[in-house]
Amino acid sequence: MLYIVGLGLGDEKDITLRGLEAVQSSSKLYVEAYTxxxxxxxxxxxxxxxxxxxxxxxxxADREMVEERADEILSEASESNVSFLVVGDPFGxxxxxxxxxxxxxxxxxxxxxxxxSVMNAIGVCGLQLYRYGETVSIPFFTETWxxxxxxxxxxxxxxxxxxTLCLLDIRVKEPSLESLCRGRKCYEPPKYMTVHIAIxxxxxxxxxxxxxxxxxxxxxxxxxRLGNEDQLIASGSMTDLLNVDFGxxxxxxxxxxxxxxxxxxxLEFYKVK
Amino acid sequence: MLYIVGLGLGDEKDITLRGLEAVQSSSKLYVEAYTxxxxxxxxxxxxxxxxxxxxxxxxxADREMVEERADEILSEASESNVSFLVVGDPFGxxxxxxxxxxxxxxxxxxxxxxxxSVMNAIGVCGLQLYRYGETVSIPFFTETWxxxxxxxxxxxxxxxxxxTLCLLDIRVKEPSLESLCRGRKCYEPPKYMTVHIAIxxxxxxxxxxxxxxxxxxxxxxxxxRLGNEDQLIASGSMTDLLNVDFGxxxxxxxxxxxxxxxxxxxLEFYKVK
Lengths: 273, 273
What we know:
The structure is a homodimer.
Chain A: E1 2-6, H1 17-24, E2 28-32, H2 46-54, E3 59-61, H3 63-68, H4 70-79, E4 82-86, H5 94-105, E5 110-113, H6 118-121, E6 136-138, H7 150-159, E7 164-168, E8 170-171, H8 177-181, E9 191-192, H9 195-209, E10 219-224, E11 232-237, H10 238-242, E12 251-255, H11 261-269
Parallel strand pairs in A: 1-4, 1-5, 2-3, 2-4, 6-7
Antiparallel strand pairs in A: 7-12, 8-9, 10-11, 10-12
């Protein structure tokens, strides 16, 4: 049996009782470390906290490993229970879908244990989930690569009065350009897009495209460390949010559409003074 | 302290460790019973299963009670810890936002403990969450009340190639028309919209509006008891799904937009033969 277990957004205590049972019944545990930072710090003591709670070792499976060693993971799962642990909900990212498809093709039983993800926990900012349009991703711009397909989507959502959830880029374990040129893999340090970078990129694109999709005065909500004890939510114009120190990653951003009175009341609590 | 604790979608075991800690620290527990059926059966033994797990009594707070006795709940929370338990994630429904707004206005500390909801768990059907447009609600049609504002939204989503999550109507504790006329409250038995009813209503609206938003051949995914042990997922045309017995509630429906190959592969597993 292959369990795909969502860990939620906060720390090791955000696993469900059902998830913990699956973990305890498993002879092998993997945790994905690439679709998002374990905000509870896989990089430092997060992994050992997981292992302590579960009472058994956990193997960190980065993107490469999952892609290269999927056969091995699935072969183990055909002989005993294997849990693949995922930050947030299992279906936040395509890669897990890949693993599930391959498992099902092999006739393996797959059980998904759901948990919170940014896609629903974002409701905490007070904007109703059913009033969101298409979600967009904002990638880090480089000198030569400035993809802005998010622009038309945001414009469309705003024309329809809908909110837009902007997922901000995460770069972990990216081979450095230099190392690729030299033929061996060295990795760049991880990079997490901040609300500030996102807003600056958004305004840069608006200045170029001039489609009036949004402007410096457009209402937004910036969220840092969603679902964590120290989460920070701030609402205000894009300019307002550029003056807020959101602190450590992960960040995300909502561009606000038309609002109802209850939504307004909630945003008021988070307003930048 | 007021905790708003998400219970997730399956049964009592879907609470998180963090949620269970909040419950254990609370002197008073309420569980909402109106925004969705506890699929784990609050109506029969679900409540006693919750009480057994928590080791303390749980008060069922229906819509009326939350609206009428919010002051009382908030006053208790100002003196000790109170947990308000919610099926799915706390911010799936507006009513919890109301309660949070009132608590914050009183200066009460509010902590939200997230969990899975239909808005992210729907990812299990294989369609990528960021490829969904605006979510729609399909209400029960009556002889005289046939609101179809969902139609334009679905049409727009489909024109953009996006998937549409259709939340299907739930009627619990509705006063019967007869009882209202007699001036005392009697309640209709609970009613949950099935995938079949939803599809029939959708096709009826398309026949009237003739906007080619969708047709009998449009690809859909029907899901029953999402996140439960016995969840059922079936993909196929609207006509195909009319031949599937989805069984007990809750049901929901996805109208499929443009698909990527990985999405196609997943839908294939759930295809009606």
